[in-house]
Amino acid sequence: MNRWYPDALKEFQIVTVFDLLLQYIQEGRIQLDKSIHSVPVAYHDPCNYGRKSLKTFGKAYFEEGRDVTKACCEDVRELNPNRNGAYCCGAGGGAWALPYSEERVFYGRTKARQITESGAKLVVAPCHNCRDQIMKSLNKEYDLGIEVKYLWELVADSLILPKK
Amino acid sequence: MSESIIKIKGKKKGSFLDKVKEILPDGGNLNLCLTCGACASGCPATGLEDMDPRKFLRMCAMGLDEEAIHSPWVWMCTMCQRCIYVCPMKIDIPQLVFNARAEWPREDRPKGIRDSCDMALRNDSNSAMGTAPDDFIFVVEDVLAEYQESQPEFKDMQAPIDKPGTFFFLNQNSREPVTEPDEMVPLWKILHLAGVDWTYGSKGWAAENYCMFLADNDCWERVTRVSANQADELGTKVFLNTE
To answer: What global pTM score does this model have?
Structure first.
């Protein structure tokens, strides 16, 4: 955006849900209870918010999602390789609307292996496609026995309600 | 070293690779391949349709345009861009794949993804599931009322649609209202507790854009403009993209 549309950036402000959640947590506008999710948790890096964001907008969201996850959970583990080297879950590029579901599941085998190796019982997937692929396909096809949550779902489920 | 350049006679047909090189910044480095295979070895789509990123690029470089472009593999690669970063020459193979998708006649592109794009063009929702604005409004109001009632601690929670002048304009993937409406609520709760002024739009509320994946650039732009216009018309300050 900086490179191609500097004028548009003067007029419009773009905010991601990562920035927003992190800001609310850091400012103390929302309070989180870490005891709710006590199982081992792994954070999955979606291509869209990492590599693709880096290439298109010049900024990758690798740490923000982890920081939010760590604010909600004690035992946060890594899927290796991760961040810029993370494997795609297999459902990107419009795969959910494509007729190649067997190929999509085969593609996801590396992600499934990473999850098994991490020992995580809960996987946090901030992206829609990733969440559906891991929760509805990989979990079943590769017997992962895990729970999958969106990042904001994790935050919402960890919220401490203010006392009236 | 020879001092004169050898010119090959005969008119060469413009290749697919040359065409894509013209579109991409720095030509996508498409002619810098060292044939090392790092892209293919780290690609989960390697082996599908007897294809991999290295082979795909080499075929294009060798002029096997038809064979490469029309391999169904271009729809199996997720364009995740991992190959770009492992490549010593930072070659943009995913953009080559995207442009190969665009070479397919629209009617020959896989039906599911074409339908998802067409659905989004059907009404002002932008929804790949064809959900009309009225249906979206109904589901949101229904789910909100249910939570206000069943969870007294959230009885004051709001989920406004077309509220003018709010700070955030929020969009929403259609899969939630259509198949898992309860999944809309977590974000509402966070925004509620953080005391945020936000709204959905009755037009352009759907966040997904399958026209992009279909490689239909005109429709991609059209869908995006519907959302942007609605955010603009309502006088919202910030477009909060959830997709």
So the answer is: 0.91
